[in-house]
Structure formats: structure tokens, C-alpha cells
Amino acid sequence: MPATHPFPLPPEDRRRSPYTGFTRAHWEAAADALLCAARPYFSPRHGLLTLPGPRPSCSGPRSDALEGFARTFLLAALRVAGGRGHDPHGHLARYAQGLAAGTAHPTDEREVTSAEPESWPRIGAVRQARVEAAALALALRLTRPWLWGTLGGDVRARIADWLLPALGPSPVDNNWWLFGLTVGGFLAEAGIETGRARAAVDRALARIEHWYRGAGWYSDGDNRAFDHYNAWALHFYPVLHAHLGADRALLAVHGPRLRAQLDDSTRLFGADGAPLPFGRSLTYRWAAAAGPWLGALTGHTPLTPGATRRLASGALRHFLDRGAVTEDGLLPLGWYGPYAPMLQGYSGPGSPYWAAKGFLGLLLPANDPVWTATEQPLPAETADTARPLGPTGLLLQSTASDGLVRVHNHGSNGVSAGPDPYYDRFAYSTRTGPTASAGAGPGLADNHFALLVDGRPTSRGPATPYATGPDRACSVHTPQHPDGTVLHGVRVHSATVVHGRAELRAHLVTGAAPGTPVRQTGWATTPGGPLAQLHPVYGYPGPPRPAPAGSSLIGPGATTTVLEGATTADPQGTLFVALASLTGDPDPAPVHTLATVRRTGRTLHLTWHDDGTTARLTLPGPPGEGDGP
Asked: In 163-222, at which residue ranges do the beta strands (DSSP E only) sit?
């Protein structure tokens, strides 16, 4: 393993695992190493686990310490349950002590004090505790044959009392409803307040039903937030609950949905094992493998057993090989190493240990084909692909020659107001990361189209999809002024058409005053990364220039290409068109040699040079406007 790897692993098995070398033994060793590395940060009676970090989360240090306890407990539970109770490192004994200590005197205090150095925060006082309640409940459910009965009756009663508030309505109207489902699943199975517990399960399932959009995709609330939370939250909790409870009726509904989701989301892993860095909570890293593991566990997956292990082991190894674990064996807040710009306010030092979800495969027995079959390639490695992702407005583009996956965003919006580089860029890939800022200078936004107001770029408002096809996606948005106000009356109709590694990017600006400057940026790449190209076709006066883009989660020294100097000409509509490319292939031909583009009015006629195929794209305009030149 590379020098950045902090703990020993078993020898590689390149016969059974020709792509990654990893086997079940590697997953067990990684789980044990992560758990043992966290032990020095336990409180004396193991009630709290205070991991080091750059700053506390918005919920405070006590909640963060509960988070460290709960999420590592889930990892320990998966490790022990996967071994059918075998616990060679004595993980459960420490968590049994912690369960007793943490519930002895629950508190409303957010700080960890000498008077209450072990107590958990009450769910009613700190809402983040509801999230950790789900981790605790799932861990207790998984280990019930070996742990629950060993706890004293008073400890079991205190745990139940602490968990029960999580059965109430969710304070956040999104995937948080499923935390109550997970707590309810454990309590009902343990025979505790079974009526309330089952009601919480039913209420959560009914709520997320309103957000199901079809083809395996949920929105994460009453919005258009589509990201990795689909696989590792919105499918994870109900499907795993149905599996653990042997609820065939529930699995008959949610299992096929999971399979449909995996038919899309398993394509979002590059040949190097990287999941797509798109959306929030990216510091959970290989938790992205939880969905594929769950598909294998329940039989609802489009992947063969060998492809499932290749995907999951590829993700684990991708991060272990790139410094995602510190020399002390800990998971820092970041992607590879620490990276503050990608964090959310709720991210605390224990947050990265939701990576525990990625160890779900340990529940599959050692003789299951997912562990014994020979690894098989990922979808990104077998064929070039262009396809829309269900109803999301996202367009997938991948190339087998370099195993690089790109997604073009024409319909998924963030969950909070204001610009968010992890949702509002026009494109994302498995080998690049969004730059940290949408401003000028070192924080130049990648994959962005902006109007320039007093020299400052607008941000992209919520995108509404209006057309998709096998090779394209289109959306419209109202740009926002740099001060956050909406540019009323201005619309940007955007479209991406893909073929192989080539991308046609078109933007029709309506309602803007003549002479308003615009700017298009391309992919932001870091040293040693793939090669990005950007070429003007219509509306831009000159060639692109390279520009510093600051940092991305891939690393420092990101650069992008910029097309600027263009201005709007007609409030009825000014069209701007460029060709772009991102590739890991060596010495690629210039992107402008890949296609010929001819324009008639708002219609673009494309001819792709590699195979002679053609495409036609018409952008909308004012009512009654024709397509004439």
C-alpha cells in the first residue's frame, strides 16, 4: 500500500480481486483499525467519543462527542454482526459501558463539563441527537443477539427512554423522517412501546412517499434535491428495515425502487473507485458504497456479485490510497485530507464516521458470492454512456477509455438558499471537484455561466428542467445578483449535449440589457489530473484563457479555462455556445475537431466527426419567434 496508508492490511489477492486486490479480510481489517484508532478519544466510562477536529459543529461539543460514539458504534455493530457475534477485539464491551454511562444522566447542556463528562444530550434539546439516535438504534438492532440481553434492565430502560423522543415528528422535513423509522424499527423489535414505534415507521414511510419521483429517485423533501442521499439514506433506511424485519410486503415495494436507483447510481463511480463529489455530506466518503451493498444483501441490484465488490472495494481503496485516513488512523473532515470548504455547519469531528455505512457488506456471509466471485468491471469501464438519470434533470456522461464519469446538472438544486458549489455548477466529475467560491480571482467558479454585474458574476438560481433526451439535458434559471437578489425578468435557458468525451454547452440569455457581459468557465483541474478543453463556437469573441481557480477537494492549485469578453446583444435572446471536454486520455485531439456546429436562429445542428452522427438542438425563445437566421 502507499506510504499514506496508516495501518497494515492483509496481502492483496489479485486472482480473486484483479482490480482492487481487496477481499473481505481487508474490510474486516480496515474496520478494526478504524475502531481501535478511535479508542484513545473515549471518555473514561466510554459514554462519549471526542475526536480531534478543527472546530465543533453547530450542535456543540457534547453532540459531537455523541456523534463519535454513535457512528463508531454502528461500525462496530456491522463488524460483529458480520462475524455472527465474533468480536476478537472486544469492541462491544466498550460500547456496552458507554450505553450505560451516556444514558445515566441525559442533559440539555451543549458543552462537555466536568460535572457531566459522560452524559448524552437529550433529543429534545439538541436536534442532531435524533440523527445519532438512528445510528445507535441500528447498531443495537444489529447486535441484539449478543449485546442487548447483556445490559442490565435499568440500562435498557434508560436507553429506551432516551430513544423514545425520536419517534415524534421530524423537525427537518427531509430524509430525517427516516431516523424515526430506524429507531421505531429497533424498539418494535425489542418489544418497547410497540404501538408508538410502528406508528413512527408508518408515518416516515408515508412522508417519503410524497417525494418519490419514479425510476428509483426521491427528492430529499419538497424540493428538487437529488444527490447521493437517494442511495445511502432515502433507500438505505426503509430497505434495510424491511430486510432486518423480514417484511416481504415492504421489501416488495422498496426493493425494486432500490434496484432502479442502483441502475443509475452505480454508474456514478469512476474506474479509479471515486464516487461522484456532488451534493452535501461528502466527508462520509465510502458511505456511497452502502447502496450497492444493500442491493446485494437484499437481491435488488443490477450488478453481479463480482461487480458489487469491485465497486465497494474500489471506493474504500480509493480513499485509503489517497490519505483519507490520518497517520493516527482517524478520518478527518474532508475528502482526501482535511478540506474545510466542503463542510456544512452540522459537520463535526465525528461526522466522517458515517463512512460506517459503507461496511454494510460485512453482513453478507463470507461464503456469499459477493465475497467469493472474481471482481468484474464497473459500468464506467465497459462502454461509453450518455443517459439522463430518471426525473432528476441530471445527464450522465462516461467514457470507457479513461473510466471517467461526468454528470451535467440541469435540475438538481441544493437544500438551502444561496449559492452552493456542490449543487449549482453545471457539471461534476469523479476526477475533479467544484472550486470553493463563485467569486472572481483565486476562487473562480468552474463549470459556471454567469452575467457580470459591476464585474462580479451572478450565481445560478434554482434550475428547472424542461427537456431531456438520450444525449442531452436542458434547464432554465433566473440568475441572482452578487448581493443575493434575483435579476427579475432575466432568464438563462441552458442545454448540454454530449457525445463521447465532447460536450456542447449552449446558453440563451433573455431579458438582459444589451451590452451585459457574460462569462463561461470550464472544468477545474489540478496537477496530475485529467485534461480540460474549452472552445468558443458562437457568441464568444476569442479563445479561452487559463485562470487560477484556487482549491478543490481533489487538491490545491486548481485551474480552469475561461471564455469572456462576450456581451448580450438583444433582450429577446442572445445565444452563447461552446464545446468542452474533460478526459484522462493522453494527448487528446483539440475539442473543436470533434464536431461541426451549424446555427440557424435558435437551432444548432451538430455533426460528430468520429461516427458521422448528427444531432439537433433548439433553445426556446419568445412566443412567435421562428427559427430563421
From this structure: 212-214, 217-218
Q: Give me 447's grid cell.
A: 463549470
Angle among Cα 434, 440, 442 to the nearest 5 degrees reads 65
pLDDT tens, residue by residue, 495-504: 999 999 999 9
List the end-to-end C-alpha distance of the chain, in Å, as a whole number. 60
| pLDDT confidence bin for 628, thresholds 50/70/90 | very low
Q: What is the DSSP letter of 328?
A: T
C-beta neighbour count of 192 within 10 angstroms? 18
Q: Helices 177-189 and 153-163: crossing angle, nearest 10°?
A: 150
The amino acid that residue 84 corresponds to is: R
Q: Could you tell me which residues come within 8 angstroms of residue 206 by beta carbon, excluding any fewer than 6 positions away?
A: none
10 Å Cβ neighbour count for 438? 24
Task: Please give the backbone phi and psi of residue 497, each rounded to the nearest 5 degrees, phi first.
Answer: -120, 130
At residue 14's C-alpha, the angle toward residues 12 and 17, to 5°, is 95
Q: Are 35 and 88 in contact (CB under 8 A)?
A: no
Distance CA 405, CA 393 (A): 16
On whether the CB atoms of residues 337 and 294 are closer than 8 A, the answer is no
DSSP 8-state assignment for residue 334: B
pLDDT digits (tens, 9 = 90+) for 56-106: 999 999 999 999 999 999 999 999 999 999 999 999 999 999 999 999 999
Bridge partners, 454 (sequence order) = none
> How many separate helices (H) and strands (E) can be counted in the chain?
14, 20
User: What does DSSP assign to residue 48?
Assistant: -
Q: What is the C-alpha separation between 6 and 319, in angstroms, rounded?
A: 12
Q: CA 289, CA 387: separation in Å to the nearest integer?
A: 22
Residue type, 10: P
Q: What is the gyration radius of the CA atoms in the chain, in angstroms?
A: 25
Assign 3-class secondary structure to 97-150.
HHHHHHCCCCECCCCCCCCCCCCCECCCCCCHHHHHHHHHHHHHHHCCCCCHHH
Q: What is the C-alpha to C-alpha distance for residues 424 and 302, in angstroms, rounded to an integer?
A: 30
| C-alpha–C-alpha distance, residues 1 and 167, integer Å | 45
Distances (CA, A) of 125 to 47, 60, 110, 116, 170: 18, 12, 9, 16, 14
